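Supplementary notes for students who missed Thursday's class. We covered one full example, reproduced here. Read the sequence, then the structure, then the short commentary at the end.
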Amino acid sequence: MTEQKPNWFKAFLKKLVPDEEFGALEIGEKNLRYLLFSKYDLKPRIFSEIKLEPGIIVKGELKNKASLVKALDEMKKIARCDDSTKNCSPVIVTLSSANFFFNVLELPEVPEASYDEAVRLNAVQATPMNLDEAYFDWQNLGVNLKTLQREFLIGVGSRVKIDAYLESFDQAGFQPLALESRSLSLLRNFNYFSETIEKNITLLMVEIGDDGISFLVGKQGKLFFDFYLFWDEIPEALDQKITREDLEAILLREVKRIIEYFSLHSQEQILHFCLFAPVLKNELVDFLAQKFNLRQVELKLPDISQGKAPDVYAGLIGAGIRGSLIPRDIDDIISLLPQGTEKIYQDRQTLSFVSLWTKVVIAGLFGVLLILGSTLLIVQGQKSRILDQINSLKVLPETSEALSLQKEAVEFNQDVEKISRLESIYNNWSVFMVSIVQVSQAQNVSIIRLSLLENSQEIRMKARAPTQKRALDFQKQALETGVFSKIEIPLSSFSETPEGVEFDAIFSLLKK
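Structure (token representation):
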């Protein structure tokens, strides 16, 4: 991925235009699935699933564009974006791992500005594809503490195969924001759903899926090795009948090869594993743990569809996390799309900014005209009323005049009461803002964005703290200021970044 320096306009847009949530689109041989998460509670906002006819996708390669476009059109209707004049929101697309090749490069430390050039020069010898005929991207994995060299994950995908998908997306009105391997989607679940505090482990991950079996190895939640077998490439599955004994034989053979390969090439031992399986999961977990003396890492995936195990949707869930929880400005994960498509989100932000401020200007002008018109009507009414009062003084007795003055006094008092009620519903925002800023400075918390809504009793904040504990200390100290009724920090909002831990906070204001 080409490193781009942040500019003032991107930072300005980030402050004014809130982060969006994007859906995930998973395409396999048998199923087409769409999922959109809520970033606040990780519950599915939209989920749809369509069965694909045999022959549309064969071993990850698109064979029938027209049928895929038809299925995508049907998916648009289910996903509530069937308006033919608009495209669907950009989506994170996840495809079969068979479409991609990954490798890890170790390079001597070079200036950050030279990363892209250095990686591309070395990738030519490290990939089986001609880079001129492939889409290429890379991800900085950090420095290997053993070799003291910087590691880069490189990924390539056949331009011809990927273009076939992109043409279908264009015809159906789906706009890919990122296109990734299913192996990356699967591994992402470890960072968000593992029930272990050990995040720096070397992990073997196995998925028994609809189309075949995925094997991958991750270190510190980052991909270092992946391997995929379709069912028709596995001898035990040629009769299209898979038994428990068949699965155990496959796992025994393939896992042994992977452990030996990884130990030989990286000089590290795999001690942990995770298994995604729709059936026989407990039996296969016990089998792997006993045969290879491995420790299981359990992942608690969110429920997607009633009646089906979450493991069925493991790849879709991982892609959905990238669309909903990972901010676009720090999303450096590999995406194999044509050059320039990484600007989709920035262009979308620009359009949102222009649209927002166009509406603000129009609303402002309308408000000014409304105020001027209302003022003119009030002045005319007051003028007419005063003239009527003057005329009445000339013809009415003193008793009528006293009654009229009494009535006006009552009306005046009612107006004062209305003004007092209106004044009471508006908060003095500066009190709350000063409290937030002072506490954030005390706890070394950086405020990224604050959202204030008129007539609302809430302030929403996105911020960054050095550690998760500092974020929780910030919550406690801010609550002790006595100007908030409660402060919520959803656990699902915590996200580790190179600069610290990002999180969302919701401040409920005390009413007057």
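Commentary. The domain at 18-193+308-339 is CATH 3.30.420.380 (Nucleotidyltransferase; domain 5). The CA atoms of residues 464 and 502 lie 4 Å apart. If anything here is unclear, bring it to office hours.
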